[in-house]
Amino acid sequence: RTRRLPNSSAMGSVLSTSGAPVRWERVARFYGLACSGAILCALGVHQLANPAAKVSMAALMMLTPLMAGTVVQRSYGEPVLEAMGVRRGGLFGRWGIAAAVMPAAFVGASLAASFMVPGVRCAPGEAMIARVVAAGGNQEQVDQIRALVAAPPVDLVQKGLLKAIVVGGTINNVPCFGEEAGWRGWLLRELAPLGFWRASLLSGVMWGIWHAPLVIQGHNYPQHPVTGIAMMTAFCTLLSPSMTLLRWKSRSVWPDAVFHGVLNAGGSLPLLILAGGSDLTVGLTGVAGLLVLAGANLIILKLYRGEISPMPEDTWAPKD
């Protein structure tokens, strides 16, 4: 039996797999607020000259999805934290471990896959030094990079991934929580009636486009800022099912914050190890990484042949 609620859109009823419509008006309000906040923060990044101030403004942008979800919930007089999946306990158990291990595995796999790109070779520090010099860096910065890559490449990868797990689970958690409370917390709850795959892919596209104000300035894709917007959207879309799986299986948004933090901490590792290729082909956000994420989605599809469903508290749909 299909349930139709007052003021629900026909589109929501057609796409829904649960019988409840998606509340598109709320989704539109949330997304408009999140994107407006992102644009304002990106303008700040563009205008500021101090590198530390630029980083701080970019970190503030990561909090805009949390702010957007809070404003929408408050405007309807509804609880905020519960709607965003802010619950204790999600980090303890196998899904908490998966939240730390999965992104590190993605980074390592994308590093290995990058060697399939013509011209890519193992040359620790070369690409990063070239980028620092091109940005006007000094000799002291170059020397720091050379000291950093003095160890054998295998040791660099192992230590880099371990550091990513530690930093991602601690320092990176605060700004990443701001994103995840909005995307995997508030938005995924609203899109849950669409089912696992539709909700994952749509939220991933929205998440990717939200990055555009920074990407166009060279973030992630400094060599191809315009094409980078499409690449970032593809990256976020392919990454989204893994994060939805964590969110719905753990019943908490905290594992996704850790996952995101580890991913951010380890994402620059290929730049440190590899030389050759381009920002469109190498690393986690390049074609190599997209292939790895596509493979992960095939694994999810094989392991969970039926529909992956959220717990009742992780969807807005009225309970019978």
Model description:
The protein starts with 9 loop residues before the first helix and ends in a 17-residue tail after the last helix. The longest helix has 26 residues, at about 225-250. By secondary structure, it is mostly helical. Helices cover about 65% and strands about 0% of the residues. The protein is built from 15 helices and two strands.
Low-confidence stretches: 1-14
What is the overall shape? globular
Mean pLDDT: 90
| Fraction in beta strands | under 5%
Secondary structure tally: strands: 2
Distance between the termini: 12 Å
H/E topology pattern:
HHHHHEHHHHHHHHHEH
Helices and strands in order:
Layout: H1 10-15, H2 24-47, H3 51-61, H4 64-75, H5 94-113, E1 121-122, H6 126-134, H7 139-148, H8 153-168, H9 173-191, H10 196-210, H11 212-215, H12 225-250, H13 254-266, H14 269-273, E2 274-275, H15 287-303
Antiparallel strand pairs: 1-2
Helix pairs in contact: 2-3, 2-4, 4-9, 5-8, 5-13, 5-15, 6-7, 8-13, 9-10, 9-13, 10-12, 12-13, 12-15
